[in-house]
Write a structure and sequence with these properties.
40 helices, 871 residues, globular, mainly alpha, 3-stranded antiparallel β-sheet, 9 strands, DNA-binding
Length: 871
DNA sequence: ACCTCCCGCCATGCT
DNA sequence: AGCATGGCGGGAGGT
């Protein structure tokens, strides 16, 4: 049934393809697409090509619209082609950039492998859904649809979905259909996996392998033996092949699924994750992972081919996990040399799933993970529980309603054409996120295009670089969130060409609540964990930003940026280029610092990383060092905190997401994604702002997390928000605007900042991420907070604009939320990450923040951030 | 030359 | 039989 429905909905346009997924070359696509009008059989055609020009509803359509709105160029192209694939559009856009091309020619050429990478695809995929979807809504995912929209073979979607499924971020409903759970269950799942991993003694196995390696070189053969000591299976074992670990409400429903449940990709993914969770450094090399995974299966086989295959699969999994920001690629330098490895950048998890977050607990479900692996293993196929899955707290429901309302408002807005995706249609709230995502995607595309152009230009001229950087930053920052709100970000980033990912995550910001002096409204401030740690009150000063309510998104991710940077060349490069240009103005100084600070990973992570870090590039180290230095420096600011108006936020994340739509629709820079629904439009916020101080926007947000590189971007500004601004630079403009927008939303950038103009725009980023869900309890405060913005550097007042903000007070944090018990550190971790965590964190944080914050507010610096280029 | 990992053939198993 | 899934590994792009 469902399928049918789905098909109906979507398919109309989509269905073109024929069943065979096979290749499509991108190039060909366009052509085909045009041609194909059709519908294909419902079944799955894989190929994507979308065409459907018409349909408004599909996300694609929305994207198209957005894109077109955003960039006329693209539109033109499409027209020319007649196509409209989203994807294609994007790609094309790139081409266009190159332009020159008449198009076709170029088009074909384009999509480079990277553009087709699983990581990028995953980003796109994730961008379509909110990190913390409203349970109330229907969050169905139609694989065919997604494949079409993303213009990829269905096969690729399976790769993504399988990994997501292993984390219980999605669950299969039926053929072709999955339900998106987002990160609600993530912490729980991770906790469970950690428990299972512990049972299996993976840590020991890892150690053994390493030991052996060191001692000997590798002999794979020998490796196998590894187990001797450990025995993996001990625990329940069975594991070896262990069964797929399931969570109670998340079991696979579809029978079919069951059959292959234990098959590799899912199980491999879980095992791979377990390795990270169990190992101390949390850095796992592919080689070790492959050995362990093979070992379980059979110890022996050394086959090289088998090993190679395993590695290949691990790359696939790693790409998805990277997109989720759970891991990051690094290189471990061992005696032998550098080996590819991945570092866990996800939330710290307690062994039992339970631990983590209280929040989580509820969110997800009821269940608690059983830890016994056996149980887990037991496939709960039966679980019949209807969908036990996510039952949500009443509060959530309320949120949903509010969101919906917002949505309506938004929808009504002219700007957004948005179509809802099928899912949306089906669901209510869900759509927003997707829209957001779409928007993000669009932005990305635009950015990409622009970026490409920009890059060129930039090289030539430095001026605008910022944008790009920002985008990166965002990404970095946001990404972590991505799931949350951010999916967008990622997308944005991508455009850069960069990497997709970034992870960063975590950055969680710690929320602190403060009373707002002016408005009286209280705000929560989110600090980055990292910052928090590092930051002393003094630091805080610099960092804190106030934000108007709506959404806060956070910052996140900063820490990683560094690593990423180092690690990821691409990103770096891109960034660098951009950064370099950065206008000076803006935040130059601080930025770098900030970025560094931001970089910090969530504190916890950082610590770990530092300890562990084996690898890393010197560059990283350098950065870190730099950062450290910076951190210390009082002057610097970090934009770590966000202020969130408590008042507004009630709805929270979802709302924010919703708001997105609007923005998105607009395309205008401002628009973007994140806005809170309410604020939705940023401008709107003014009221809020006013309260906040925002008014002008000048406030710059803090940036926070920006990676150093990104920092540079900061300056971006240009106009981010402003529409007008967009204009400023022609080429970039749109993109820049978008970027700014995004950034702003994300909080990375302050609107005011530099930008030129207007700050007004002010959009605040909302962070979708916030997860409403989790928090019911906590929540409120926190969530609300999300919104924040950062301001720039200045704490208090500062900022240049004066926005100053509320921060000042800081002091009193208002009680709202926070309980504060915990340390910040933890909180810091990832706020973003898990909703669950967040909530708690927030509370905790608050307390902490308060303290810290108080001081924080003070700071004043502007942000300087920007610049820095950093390196 | 090595690292990544895309691509898509084709097996598997549900419908 | 047809189709959805997804294992698997050739081989190409990137560096």
């Amino acid at each position: 049934m469902e399928n049918e429905k789905e098909n109906h909905f979507f398919e109309p346009h989509k269905r073109i393809l024929i069943k065979t997924p096979q290749k499509e070359s991108a190039t060909s696509n366009s052509v085909l697409a045009e041609i194909q009008p059709n519908f294909g059989p419902l079944t799955t055609p894989t190929k994507p090509k979308e065409i459907s020009p018409g349909e408004p509803w599909t996300p694609t359509a929305n994207l198209k619209m957005l894109i077109s709105a955003a960039s006329p160029e693209i539109r033109n192209r499409d027209q020319k082609r007649g196509l409209s694939d989203n994807r294609t559009g994007i790609l094309e856009a790139k081409d266009c950039l190159h332009e020159h091309l008449s198009g076709d020619e170029y088009e074909k050429s384009q999509p480079s492998r990277k553009e087709k990478s699983l990581g990028l695809l995953c980003h796109k995929f994730l961008a379509r859904y909110p990190n913390y979807p409203n349970p109330a809504v229907n969050n169905d995912i139609c694989l065919d649809e997604v494949a079409e929209e993303l213009n990829v073979e269905r096969r690729r979607i399976y790769d993504i979905v399988n990994v997501l499924e292993s984390l219980h971020m999605v669950s299969r409903l039926a053929k072709n259909r999955y339900t998106w759970h987002g990160r609600h269950n993530l912490n729980k799942t991770l906790g469970t996996l950690k428990s299972v991993g512990m049972e299996n003694k993976y840590a020991e196995q890892i150690m053994m392998i390493k030991k052996r390696e060191y001692e000997q070189e590798f002999d794979f053969n020998s490796d196998k033996s590894e187990e001797p000591t450990v025995k993996p299976g001990s625990g329940q074992n069975g594991h070896s092949d262990m069964c797929f670990v399931e969570l109670p409400g998340v079991e696979f429903r579809a029978a079919s699924v069951n059959s292959r449940k234990d098959k590799s990709l899912r199980v491999m993914s879980q095992k791979f994750v377990m390795l990270f969770l169990v190992s101390t450094p949390q850095i796992v090399s592919l080689e070790v992972a492959a050995k362990i995974l093979i070992g379980e299966d059979h110890v022996e086989d050394l086959d090289k081919s088998k090993f190679k295959t395993k590695i290949r699969r691990l790359y696939d999994i790693a790409n998805v996990l990277s997109s989720l920001e759970l891991i990051k690629k690094v290189h471990v330098t061992e005696e032998r040399g550098r080996k590819p490895a991945f570092k866990w950048t996800g939330p710290e998890i307690c062994p039992n799933s339970t631990v983590l977050s209280p929040v989580t607990s509820f969110d997800s479900c009821d269940l608690e993970p059983s830890h016994s692996s056996k149980e887990q293993c037991a496939k709960n196929l039966f679980s019949a529980t209807g969908k036990p899955n996510f039952t949500r707290h009443p509060s959530l429901i309320k949120l949903v309603k509010s969101i919906e309302n917002d949505r309506r408002k938004i929808n009504s807005a002219p700007s957004s054409p948005i179509k809802t995706s099928k899912a949306e249609s089906s669901l209510k709230s869900a759509p927003f996120p997707s829209k957001m995502a779409q928007l993000a995607a669009i932005c990305k595309m635009q950015l990409e295009e622009q970026s490409s152009e920009l890059k060129k230009k930039v090289k030539m001229q430095l001026t605008r670089p910022t944008v790009h950087c920002q985008s990166l930053d965002f990404i970095a920052n946001s990404e972590p969130n991505r799931s949350l709100a951010s999916s967008q970000t990622p997308s944005l980033i991508q455009p850069l060409g960069v990497l997709p990912l970034i992870h960063s995550p975590l950055s969680s910001a710690v929320p602190v609540i403060m009373p707002h002096a002016h408005s009286g409204a209280s705000y929560a401030i989110y600090l980055h964990p990292s910052q928090a740690q590092t930051v002393t009150p003094q630091n805080l000063n610099s960092t804190v930003h106030t934000v108007p309510c709506t959404n806060v998104t956070g910052i996140k991710g900063s820490a990683e940026s560094i690593t990423k940077v180092t690690t990821e060349k691409i990103a770096n490069d891109v960034v660098k280029s951009d950064v370099t240009t950065k206008p000076g103005k803006a935040l130059p100084t601080s930025e770098g610092q900030i970025s560094r600070n931001e970089e910090r990973e969530p504190t916890a992570e950082r610590c770990l990383k530092r300890q562990n870090v084996l690898e890393d590039n010197s560059s990283k180290k350098k950065f870190k060092e730099d950062l450290k230095g910076l951190e210390n420096v009082p002057a610097t600011l970090f934009p770590s905190g966000y202020l969130i108006p408590l008042t507004q936020c009630p709805s929270l994340s979802t709302e924010s997401i919703l708001s997105h739509k609007e923005n998105a629709g607009a395309c205008s820079p401002n628009n973007r994604i994140y806005n809170s629904p309410i604020t939705g439009v940023i401008p709107v916020t003014t009221s809020d702002l006013s309260a906040v101080n925002f008014p002008t926007f000048h406030v710059t947000p803090l940036k926070l997390m920006v990676s150093p590189t990104s920092v540079g971007t900061v300056p971006v500004v240009n106009s981010p928000s402003l529409p007008s601004s967009s204009h400023s630079i022609p080429v970039q403009n749109p993109s820049s605007a978008i970027v700014n927008f995004t950034l702003q939303h994300l909080g990375l950038i302050s609107p005011g900042v530099q930008v030129s103009a207007n700050a007004g725009a002010g959009s605040v980023p909302a962070s979708p991420r916030t997860e409403p869900v989790s928090a019911p309890s906590e929540t409120t405060g926190m969530q609300q907070g999300k919104v924040t913005k950062h301001e720039s550097p200045v704490p208090g007042r500062g900022q240049v604009n004066g926005q100053s903000i509320t921060v000042t007070t800081g002091q009193q944090p208002v009680p709202v939320t926070p309980k504060g018990s915990q340390l910040m550190t933890e909180n810091f971790f990832r706020t973003p990450g898990g909703p669950t965590k967040l909530a708690p964190t927030c509370d905790d944080l608050d307390g902490a923040h308060k303290t810290s914050l108080g001081p924080l507010f003070v700071p004043q610096r502007k942000l300087e951030v920007s610049t820095e280029d950093v390196h």
